Amino acid sequence: MTQTRIAGVIAAVPTPFDHHGDIDVDAFTEHARWCLANGCDFLNVLGTTGEANSLSAAQRSALMTKAAQGLDGGRLMVGTGTPDLQTTVALTRRAFDLGFAAALVLPPYYYKPVEEDGLFAWFAELVRMTDETPVPIYLYNFPQLTGIEFSPALSARLAQAFPERVHGAKDSSGNLGYARELAKIEGFGVFPSSEAVLADADRDGYAGCISATVNIDPLSSQQLWRDQQNAGLLDEVGGLRRAIAAHPLIPAVKHLVGRRTGNAVWNKVMPPQLTITDRKRLDALDTLHVRALADA
Fold first, then answer.
1. Torsion 98-101-106-107 (CA) sign
2. What angle do CA 3, 7, 11 make, to 5 degrees?
3. How many other β-carbons are positioned within 10 Å of the β-carbon of residue 157?
4. Phi, psi angle pair for 211, to nearest 5°
5. Which residues are 44's β-sheet partners?
6. How far is CA 134 from CA 22, 53, 71, 217, in A?
7. What is the distance of C-alpha 93 from the center of its chain?
8. For position 293, what pLDDT does the model report?
9. What is the DSSP string of 42-63?
């Protein structure tokens, strides 16, 4: 398997569900193709925005298979992290077998607090147990949800111990000081969760961004990635992100994807997420849909 270093604009794509709660593969594939054709360099499948932790391992594996069949797996990063090592290993092996570019791995988030030596041991076992299926691994730092932070010291330790496997991190903490520290690790690709950071990517050493709101207007983010000094683009990209993030993020993104596609399947979220029903919120989101169309 040829390993490609991931970089650029990455949408954390949502997962559509029909009224039975089954994944609508056709809707998923259409949106993923649209993102890749309209500014995204790669996609992050089955992350937080993709509601992966509301799905069974079998559901996740099935969507991975369909995604690899309908899309270029070499442009896909996939979330494989779970609290237990065996399931994480199985999904990570599957990512390699299907030709995904990388696996995005949460820490084992049930037991906490946990010592960093314990986290290191867990990831060392993941690397060892997937040695014959060596898909690149990116650490997924989201302490607001997991209660665990990959410290810069631990991240550097993992990257230095396993340079052929641990390639970087997605940071959803929102702490750019922390992200800048991670970016100082040699050969370690760091992806903050806001596309607004693209304006500082060269200065701060980011490899790009992985963002839920990129789903709505990926082209503007790609333009900012290429023209980082463009203050007008930064205002446009940052303003749209802030406006979307003022609402519950996952249902807001899905509502806007549904407006673009005209497909009501995008309105369904999996519990504990809730569909947005407040009329004022929906009106505000519909205004953003019109704005995104104008920017496209």
1. positive
2. 110
3. 19
4. -140, 140
5. 12, 77
6. 30, 23, 21, 33
7. 19
8. 73
9. EEEESSTTTTGGGS-HHHHHHH
Count of CB atoms within 10 A of residue 101's CB? 24
pLDDT per residue over 143-191, tens digit each?
Answer: 999 999 999 999 999 999 999 999 999 999 999 999 999 999 999 999 9
Burial (0-12, 13-18, 19+ Cβ within 10 Å), 175: middle
pLDDT category at 2 given cuts 50, 70, 90 is very low
Give pLDDT tens digits for 84-109.
999 999 999 999 999 999 999 999 99
DSSP assignment of 99-165, as one string?
T-SEEEE----SS-S--HHHHHHHHHHHHHHTTTS---EEEEE-HHHHS----HHHHHHHHHH-TTT
Tokens of 158: 């993992």
Task: Write out the two tokens for 227.
Answer: 């023209």
What is the gyration radius of the CA atoms in the chain, in angstroms?
18
What would the two tokens of residue 76 be?
A: 């896909």
Average pLDDT over residues 59-87: 98
Q: Kindly state the tokens that stand for 18.
A: 């029909």
Task: Report yes or no: 227 and 256 within 8 Å, Cβ to Cβ.
Answer: no
pLDDT at site 296? 62
